[in-house]
Amino acid sequence: MTQTAVAAATPQAPATEELLAVDDLSCTLTTPRGELRIVDGVSFVLRRGETLGIAGESGSGKSMLSRSLMRIAPRSAELTGSVRFDGTELLGLPVERMSRYLGPQMALVFQDPMTALNPVVPIERQITEGPRRHLGLSRGQAKARALELLELVGIPEPRKRLRQYPHELSGGMRQRVMIAIALACDPQLLIADEATTALDVTVQKQILDLLQEIQAERRMAVIMVSHDLGVLAGRTDRTMVMYGGRVMESAPTRELFAHTRHQYTRALLDAIPRMDQPRHTLLRAIPGVPPDPAAELAGCRFAPRCAAAIERCRTAVPPLEAATTGSDHLYACNVPVNRDGRRPA
After folding, report:
1. CATH number reported for the structural domain that contains residue 279 in this entry
2. ABC transporter domain location, by residue (predicted)?
């Protein structure tokens, strides 16, 4: 666990207004190897002002889910299911209408700003492009907006930075520029896709604190994608754990950590180094590798790596079910972890 990322900050109390409703969303890519189901039947609801964490190993489908929500998945992708944003179904919208949502309504902060930013375009043009197109601002108004945003995200000497190119900025400053671009049109939903992974832990905490402060000021909804459960622990209202494109477990974050039910979630938590462990304690690594999307597995996709798997796990896909009647803690496991969060003996 990245110790500095587990902040004492408390997530904002979620509002009750529904902003994003995702129902049975799937993303299938057509490749030379055949059709690959990268996202498989994902459903969730996000409310205004709420923060949803999406966790899982590399290859679990987190990033493709983020891109599917915004319809910026690869051209070969086929999206099915439903994505309703503020009451409007997005999957059926013409491209021109959908483009009006990207920026003013939904924005994405990418994992690597060095590849996401255009290396031959000054910072000013990259920030002002959205406000000029979507908000109708003049060049002067857009520049003033860019200066305001750079100050908001804590970049020193903002007027100087506007004239610079991405390679002239540090990694932390480039990520702050990415956040400024994402916020330029005042979106209602911000998706941070591994937005701090490439940063050192001190800068990582600064960026996470900044996102949380801006969210509170603007009452944005945030989807925070990370492979680091420590990043999500103190900063999200709910956490959804994905594996092989499917949702394994979803619950209020405190409930998920305190009363883990899925074997995969428990395995992720067991793999995190703890400050209270004796020195030289061996970590409990998860054996094996994530599933090949081209492989057809009849049962639970985690079964080949799960120490608790039984025959039923290999032959039938476990449905998402509530931990208790009426609970919003859902898990899909035939051999759930004990209610106290420990593995069965």
Report:
1. 3.40.50.300
2. 20-269
**What digits encode the pLDDT tens for the residues 289-307?**
999 988 888 899 999 999 9
Q: State pLDDT tens for residues 151-207.
A: 989 899 999 999 999 999 998 899 899 999 999 999 999 999 988 776 788 888 888
Under a CB-based contact definition with an 8 Å cutoff, are residues 161 and 150 in contact?
yes
Cα distance between residue 279 and residue 276, in whole Å = 9
Which residues are CB-neighbours of 87 under 8 A, at least 6 positions away?
none
Residue 102 is given by DSSP the state B
Angstrom distance (rounded) from CA 225 to CA 66: 8
The encoded tokens of residue 49 equal 């002002």
> How do 18-31 and 77-85 pair as beta strands?
antiparallel
Domain count, the chain: 1
Residue 11 has pLDDT above 90, yes or no: no
Q: Is residue 51 part of a domain?
A: yes
Q: Is residue 68 part of a domain?
A: yes
Q: Is 238 helix (H, G, I), strand (E, B) or coil?
A: strand
Q: Do the domain assignments include residue 296?
A: yes
- Whether residue 179 is contained in a domain is answered as no
Range of the domain at 282: 18-105+187-331
Give the gyration radius of the chain's Cα atoms: 21
Round to whole Å and give the CA distance between 182 and 184: 6
